[in-house]
Amino acid sequence: MKLLGKIPSSMAEIGWKVHVVAGDTASEVPKDLDGIAIHIVPMKRNPSPLKDLHSLVRWILLLSRVRPDIVVIGTPKASLVGILAALFCRVPVRVYQLRGLRLQTVSGPARHVLFLVEWITAKTSTNILAVSNSLKNEYCRLGLSQAKKIEVLGLGSSHGVDVDYFHPTRWSVWEPPELALKRAKSGHMPILGFVGRFSKDKGARELLQCCQVLLEAGITHTLLVIGPLEGDEEALDELRRINRDTIMAGSVDDVAPYYSLMDLLILPTHREGFPNAVLEAAASGVPAVTTDATGAIDSVIDGQTGMIVPTHDGNALGAAVMGLLIDPQLLEKMGLNARNWVVSQFDSGRVTKNHSIYFRYKVKIPMFPE
């Protein structure tokens, strides 16, 4: 539910009756959703016919009771089930919030299944909101939908970033709970950050290559990995072997203060919708080196707020990171540029307002045809 940001509360403030549906009973309800109806409909990420059918029935029962004018649903599985239920219940406006394209990094039969899921979802939705322009372009290139049906609000992002909460000076005196991080903070080595699932799709192997390039060039550094480990234990073990200053913080309750420790964010991802980590780092005054992958390419102005390198190229990643580390003035300038760009284009208030205007004025609510 964190992906919704302030959008539900802003819609409620202008008079909408807002219902939020989550797929996990363990999800924490943010404070700004107080007073908004919360419903739980369990949904599995991977295909599971019996459980998916059960979710579909739960969706139909829920929508039959609430009788909404609009449904807005993100993530492929939830969107397919929810939008099919909305079609069955004759909800006139069915908006698919396109947050990413999982099939890009999948091959074989699984890719065909995911393609079919996306195609059905696109066909049965009335509107599609993509979180980045490159995601929209890729969706159209694959023939999943026509461009006229897809809209990107502003420069993209699902909910923007709270630029005050992630302000560079807010956490300047914060002390990390991890002893290794305290030592790194007091040392003179640069701290490179990685925020996200440590997995093949997020570029674990390229991150390993990057660190090898830096160490071979004699650039010692601390690598701070924040996020869960998902399936690439070998890459993590090798990272720790070649660089004893690799710190695996795992999932943390609040990532904001950790950005205050970083000199640079590295995101060698293979696919994204629009990476929130890059926006959060930028709001914290930390530039990023990322890839030209879908979604990631929209999150950085190459050469101004960070650097963009080819996807799957760990050597290019290492060279870009090295170039910034040996030029502290350029690194600082990019951090300032990144902060200014995010404040002007991706402040959560601005992104929320874009969504409010879209739902209030651009989405037409027709009578469902008999």
Explain how this protein is built.
With 370 residues, this protein is of the alpha/beta class. It contains 13 helices and 12 strands. Strands 9-8-7-10-11-12 form a 6-stranded parallel sheet, with helices on both faces. Helix 5 links the parallel strand 5 and strand 6. It starts with 6 loop residues before the first helix and ends in an 8-residue tail after the last helix. The relative contact order is 0.12. The model has no long low-confidence stretch (mean pLDDT 90).
Quick tags:
single chain; alpha/beta; six-stranded parallel sheet; globular
Q: In summary, what is this structure?
A:
This protein is of the alpha/beta class.
List the helices and strands and how they pair.
Layout: H1 7-13, E1 19-22, E2 37-40, H2 49-66, E3 70-74, H3 76-88, E4 93-98, H4 109-124, E5 127-130, H5 133-141, E6 150-151, H6 179-186, E7 191-195, H7 204-216, E8 222-226, H8 233-242, E9 246-250, H9 256-259, E10 264-267, H10 276-283, E11 288-291, E12 306-309, H11 314-325, H12 328-345, H13 348-362
Parallel strand pairs: 1-2, 3-4, 4-5, 5-6, 7-8, 7-10, 8-9, 10-11, 11-12
Helix pairs in contact: 2-3, 3-4, 7-8, 7-11, 10-12
